[in-house]
Amino acid sequence: MATVQLCNGKTAMCLTEHTALKLENGLILHPSGAVWQAYLPKQTDGQVLRISYEIIPRLTYDAPGYDNATLSCLETVQFRCGNE
User: Does residue 81 fall inside a structural domain?
Assistant: First the structure.
């Protein structure tokens, strides 16, 4: 599972350039790929996703603490409460 984290500044550029996915183990991914591009217009801060991904090599190390990843599968997770 991964949680969508929009950038802290909440600027106009956040929705397309600064989204990260935080995994349950604390790893932060900067996602890419066709699956991610299709999801971008629907992203919501704090949304929980089920994903499959592959870590891709980093070209620079100027922003430590995250890994770049290409997503191969993404689906939203719906939580239900009560006796449904």
Answer: no
44-67 pLDDT tens trace: 889 999 999 999 987 766 566 788
Structural domain that includes position 43: 2-76
Tell whether 84 is covered by a domain. no
Length of the chain: 84
| CATH value at residue 37 | 2.40.50.500
SS3 of 14-67: the string is HHHHCCEEEECCCCEEEEECHHHHHHHHHCCCCCEEEEEEEEECCCCCCCCCEE
Token pair for residue 74?
């993404």
